[in-house]
tRNA N6-adenosine threonylcarbamoyltransferase (Candidatus Mycosynbacter amalyticus), 359 residues
Amino acid sequence: MLILGIESSCDETAAAVVQDGTRLCSNVVNSQIDIHSQYGGVVPEVAARSHLEVVMPVVNKALSDADVTWDNIDAIAVTYAPGLSGSLLIGTLAAKTLAYLHNKPLYPIHHVEAHVYANFITQQADSLNLTLPTKQPTFPMLALIVSGGHSQLVLFRDHGDYTLLGQTQDDAIGEAFDKVAKMLGLPYPGGPSISRAAEQGDAHKYDFPKAKLAGMYDFSFSGLKTAVLRRLQREVGVDFTFPSHELPVRVDEQMRHDFAASFQHIAIETLVDKARRAYDEYQPASVVIAGGVAANQELRRQLSAALPLDIEYAPIQLCTDNAAMIATLGYYQSKRVEPTSPFALEIRPSLSMVQENVV
Ligand code: KG4
Ligand code: ZN
């Protein structure tokens, strides 16, 4: 079964073709990073316009890269939640039109749940050359979902059958990376630039506190972000009223690296502590990480060291936003639920994964 996935929830326009929920035939991602980096973050109106311009060329490229035509495609899967409204609208409109035009079943996909499914891709077309996991995860599966908008631990008993164990009470981890990067004067997006800067820094130079929370598996990153700001203000010799956007010019290179490394170390350790706790309690058969922050090498290193099982990580290209994960989840959805009418599909910009799972 060949599924075309379409993703446009934030600042990536993506399309991919996946066979039987496991084999990646093509994976096209048009990133808007260059467009948004001049503003230091995603500008929703600019994002929507860019999606509109590239969505059809991206879809056509996904089909031609996979060497297939519409006749070969069995279904379309598209992100309908959560994300920026204008961005979601373009992707879903394209998918609805194409489903109607080519008479294909249409499956609405939850973006955050889909991130987990990047881990189910274990085969690929010869031209792709990604380093993929050798086998699919098995259930029960513990998923640590860490992205720009989400930080949560989810226990999957089966496809579509999951429980939220805990989540962030304030900022998402990716958001914390992005904000700390801004304070340090590191370029957008902050996650990869913090990791790069951290390679040359001392992770134990600055001590930052770990949040203590009532929920066993909940996270909080807002306090850590403020602790970094206060320490940075102190180090450069200004008071707490000094604006954070004027800090970067006062930070020298070594300090920047040490702050990046110390922040990253503690932020990642917080995630890994909770994942370890959940592992001990639920004894899952597999553990996966998902979302943009899953690209972080320090997370992979710390998690593998903390858990007594072999974790196979998805390649970085499938951790950040892409449509391969959308098509993959689309396949498993098609086994469980009826397709949606192109006329009925509506976007749900703030739908959480848990709300969706309540039937
Ligand atoms: O999943 P994603 O591509 O988009 C959302 O659905 O949010 O995640 C984007 C987030 C951004 O906050 C970015 O800074 C972070 O993932 N990120 C990283 C790394 N690569 C991307 N964070 C830490 N380390 C990385 N290597
Ligand atoms: Zn994402």
About this structure: Residues 111, 115, 147, 291-292, 321 surround zinc ion (ligand 2) (CB under 6 Å).
